[in-house]
Amino acid sequence: MHPAIQGILTIVIGVGACVAYFYFSNQFLDKVLFPAKGKHAGRNINRANMIRPWLFLFPALFALSVYLAYPVLETLRLSLTDRRLDGAFVGLDNYRQMVTEPKFWEAMRNNMLWLFVVPAMSTAFGLLVAQLTDRIKWGNIAKSLIFMPMAISFVGAAVIWKLVYDARPPGTEQIGVLNALYVWFSGNDPQQWLTVPFWNNFFLMVVLIWIQTGFAMVILSAALRGIPEDTIEAAIIDGANPFQIFFKIKVPQIKSTIMVVWTTITLVVLKVFDIVFAMTNGQWETQVLANYMYDKLFRSFDWGVGSASAIVIMLLVTPILVWNVRNVRREMR
Amino acid sequence: MDNIAGSKSSLTWAVHISVVALVALWLFPTVGLFVSSFRTADQISGSGWWKALFPSEQTLTLRTADPDSQVQQGALYVIEGNLFDDEAANGSKSEISAFGISSRELSAFAVGETAPLRDGSRITVQVNGDYRLESETEITGSRGARVFVDARTPPKFTMDNYRQVLFSGSATDNMAKAFINTLTVTIPATIIPIVVAAFAAYALAWMDFPGRALLVAFVVGLLVVPLQLALIPLLKLHLGIGIGKGYLGVWLAHTGFGLPLAIYLLRNYMVSLPRDIIENARVDGATDFQIFTKIILPLSFPALASFAIFQFLWTWNDLLVAKVFLIDATGQTTVMTNQIIELLGTRGGNWEILATAAFVSIAVPLAVFFAMQKYLVRGLLAGSVK
Q: Which spans are transmembrane here (chain A) (predicted)?
């Protein structure tokens, strides 16, 4: 069978089954189980309405429980067992083994660096662009061009930036922009940027900053628009210059939005894996936790330590989780 | 704002210039890849892509015609012709600035000079590639003499890379199959979570049942669970219940991972719909199923569209989920992101192939992005800012 036809068939079956569930389960409830006619019509309608929320919710709850809630618990359990000892309980052995590995500490150190640099830079650039494009006529075009990297996959972005960082032997023409500029200005030999320990982390971070700035910009520019104009007018009348208006009037008013943007990008950073995987694969001291975990799981097949590092990632996210849930509880009241 | 006294400052120009600079900075890398995908391998390695519009200096290795074509002119044996004859791809407009006959001295002779070859013959090369090889004795050997030239080649763009990547059918470069696989993953993995999340969001927004607030908190809590956490337990589960690695598994995984955000966004939107409409419909005897499909779904179109774009971009661009739940040893179900990773490994230096493959994979998301940007922005704002 041609792969395209096979693809279409699988798509039709997959989507069809999902739609069919909702349609037929509700039909069954209304027509067969509790029909809204006959002598028990009133009672039946009430009963049907008691069951229906769960009919609506069932697939979602089922998927959430199986695909997100269960894995958290199962990973926690796996991190306390040893795969080689037939899954016997070994307490904190995996964690102990993990903290003795230099690679783990390298991943931790790099992750902390990522967690600090990427959200800070993306938010700062996003705020800068949002403010600069706020009042110019072609601002919307500029914004969508800066927003565009959001649509590009991490892998695509990795290829794009590998071309930027490309290095050719000294003396030949450089086809990577960075080396072309570097050789032009400094006259030194071209560098293999991704293999320079410590600094190469920043070259990887640039890729994520490039992607995330658009996201920060969109949200912050909406927040900037939402600032009441009279506060700004008052400042102008009082003779404030544009920089004072921006830092003393605008930024304090959108503080909470800045926090939201910062946390969202932090989550992206913690989960990100593709960029490191595609560009250096953790070599030359660029390992991060997510990639370290992937290494343990699918290259060394060490589920114990792999799960332990996954739990470390989970612990790092927990403050944000608690904060989110508390916000929602407050709002529901 | 423009008319407020004092707002039109001398900074206006600085603002315009800085925005231009920022946009250029953000666009530059992508444009580089795009331009590179239309250049030949020689051009890419010969000059930076930003010089693509100008003639490039290259050192080429060319050959004269075979000794079979020699003619006798008086006492001399002569071969005449044009060095670029065999190289139709290089065009006849290339200009030679220097040539050489040994690989140690690539540009030892200026055009028009006569260079002595090792076997006693002499060669003269002209700017346009015309050459004259003459010898007192008969020229022997099976192939023509090797000539190295420094040539200025005019800019040239080609679709060959796309042909190679999409239609060549070779196992390593075959993006066409990966493209179809990616679509097969993406379409159901976009539609299924939307359908499931829309029903759940409606229930959480408008239906009354015990434990509703707790369920909302449950969903919000799951928003932050890193999906790496789910890989091992779920892979074991999939293998255990016999789904194994395949489309069903990857759809389910994307559905599970996409649901928290979908439910959260859609519930926020549905709660903001006017209460009257729903209550009126209830009074008229509509069941919740009818209210949902006839009233809420059409009204929720903007929110549905924005989530659909998110989920589409996310599943199209995904590497990790596909790597764990879909791609098996046969490689039949590989997706484009994975194909590119493999190309990075096997053809890391072949920028024409890499650039083209990457561009094939980002073309669809870019098209969707520019066409539906309005909804994407609206969705972002609905989800993040209250």
A: 6-24, 54-73, 112-133, 145-164, 202-224, 258-280, 300-323
